[in-house]
């Protein structure tokens, strides 16, 4: 045979670290080294002179097609992966093969050289990496589901705190109104009794009319205040539960949301000041905007003024330019250590887990400001010197789809 007369080629076959073979145009083995016989487990002598179909019937169709293609076009075929499992082996083995024509000096193709590099370990590693990646992605999805659930729970908890504050704000004017109404009812009964006895005095009539006038004024004032609280709460609650986009005045919304915390701040002797410019129209998401304010307020009361400490919270809202507004939320509380400040927005990080804090409040703030409202958020804090949040928000929120 032609190739068997080439000692150099035979030496390469015998010493090569990869599988090598030489096939005739009719797919008979002219040469093969020990490395390549591992594909089927047949000896070198068992290959020579036999066809691929005799030795590796499972691969015969593919091999014959490749050889025909090379003979017809003269072009090599590279990077073909083959896999097989011998009867005496449990694990499937894989190779990547390279096919090149062997030509005579006149260009005639007389054989096809095959090189096969075993990639079984690489394939196993790829499968393990793929499996590990799938497991990691599953765990990540599970973690995100848990995080979403906890975030929703945190939102509901914030809404619950708001409900408690609103209930007290409504109870106060309603209680006063009930007292006034009861007094008015009692005086009306006394007045009616005097009229019935026929001994009504001018002074009694004058006193009763003054009482009615004063009581009516108090009722209008108190019931109006309660109605305002109810309307404010209805709008804020609707915004936070539906998270729909609409046009609103940022100053008015800020006042509505933070008014829900007035009672808690008074009880804890925390001074509060709010300064909002007028005509701060926004086309954005009032629910998430209100959620940010709620979480900042709760964060201040929980962390800045913990353990009964008192101080001041200052909130201001102003126009930066025609396209952006700036919200500053600052307190003069205990402040944060550098390592706490660095991790303040990390999910589930909290310094007061023993008090039931979830560590999601500021993480939600960051997610809403950056991802939902399209804004920027900056935190500055020093131990003993308070904390300052600066939010730069676009008046027209980006369309998040």
UniProtKB/TrEMBL annotation:
Listed GO MF terms: ATP binding
Occurrences of domain Histidine kinase (ranges): 165-397
Protein's UniProt keywords contain ATP-binding: yes
InterPro entries (UniProt xref): HATPase_C_sf, HATPase_dom, His_kinase_dom, HisK_dim/P_dom, HisK_dim/P_sf, PAS, PAS-like_dom_sf, PAS_4
Transmembrane segments: none
Gene3D superfamilies membership: 1.10.287.130, Histidine kinase-like ATPase, C-terminal domain, PAS domain
EC numbers, comma separated: 2.7.13.3
Coiled coil: 115-142
Catalytic activity of the protein: ATP + protein L-histidine = ADP + protein N-phospho-L-histidine
Keywords per UniProt: ATP-binding, Coiled coil, Nucleotide-binding, Phosphoprotein
Protein known as: histidine kinase
Organismal lineage: Bacteria, Pseudomonadati, Pseudomonadota, Alphaproteobacteria, Hyphomicrobiales
